[in-house]
């Protein structure tokens, strides 16, 4: 009989294939007993009953069903859930917290590619690279159109970061690589000393918008942040400024963005939208000053294994009785994505 705790991987099949290659499965097998049921995308199948009764640890990712009271009843020995992805909002429940089940996530690991994508977008925004690439399809005889999008370059720019989250903090740190950059941060919950230590200056949103050459959003999607960027905020942005959204589509009022971008006054780089994807007839698709990518900033493909590694690291710490690095506390969910 194995002395290792019994564990189960719960996620959709594509995610399982991406995140748990042979090396990671071997590492996992050295820590826990995977039993006869190594992976599942459902916790409701009758044939799982015997397995679920013995499961102490779940490793979850995209596709995990909500851990309702009924499903938790089938797992009376469950003690910990190591989530190999970002937010846990889609599957945690009040019953899970009431049972005192430990939860971790891969949000810190997922923040890395989003911050990298955002920083690359900021640099390209300084040169108006995306928009000028679109213009090149229309103006084919000469390059005189390059002067129509405002001053180009990345020296002496002001970058506005909305949300001093895991990702926002990383973006502030990355932006310091640019010469003579001013980085402003708007976040009502941020500590000004922590912002300053990262390389930014804490200001209000009203102070940030009119002076920033690039505004990048990294706030959580909460009821109070829905459409935090709408008509008033967009009109407050300076001419030729760029708005980047790699956070959540609900943070930006799509109708207001359509109206403002239709004037050609600002540029929008959107990796997330509301709804997602946008309707096929959305005006944003046809505007040369709007660039839309299909939600690719976060971990994809090989990058997702970084979150698996983070979960396995914390699993090792859990089994050794050490403090965890990525534990999710119920009370903190009100301020996070």
Task: Give a written overview of the molecule.
With 337 residues, this protein is α/β, with parallel strands linked by helices. It has helices at 13-19, 22-29, 49-54, 69-73, 94-98, 107-126, 129-138, 166-175, 192-198, 205-208, 231-236, 254-262, 304-319; strands spanning 7-10, 39-40, 57-60, 80-83, 102-104, 158-162, 182-186, 201-202, 214-217, 242-245, 267-270, 290-292. A seven-stranded parallel β-sheet has the order 8-7-6-9-10-11-12. Helix 6 crosses helix 8 (166-175) and helix 6 (107-126) packs antiparallel against helix 13 (304-319). The radius of gyration is 23 Å and the shape is elongated.
Any chance you could write out the topology, listing elements then pairs?
Layout: E1 7-10, H1 13-19, H2 22-29, E2 39-40, H3 49-54, E3 57-60, H4 69-73, E4 80-83, H5 94-98, E5 102-104, H6 107-126, H7 129-138, E6 158-162, H8 166-175, E7 182-186, H9 192-198, E8 201-202, H10 205-208, E9 214-217, H11 231-236, E10 242-245, H12 254-262, E11 267-270, E12 290-292, H13 304-319
Parallel strand pairs: 1-2, 1-3, 3-4, 4-5, 6-7, 6-9, 7-8, 9-10, 10-11, 11-12
Distance between the termini: 41 Å
Order of adjacent strands in the largest pleated sheet: 8-7-6-9-10-11-12
How would you sum up the major sheet?
7 strands, parallel
Proportion of residues in helical segments: 25-40%
- DSSP strand content: 5-15%
Question: What does the radius of gyration come to?
Answer: 23 Å
Structural class: alpha/beta
User: What's the count of strands?
Assistant: 12
Low-confidence stretches: none
Instruction: Give the overall silhouette.
Output: elongated
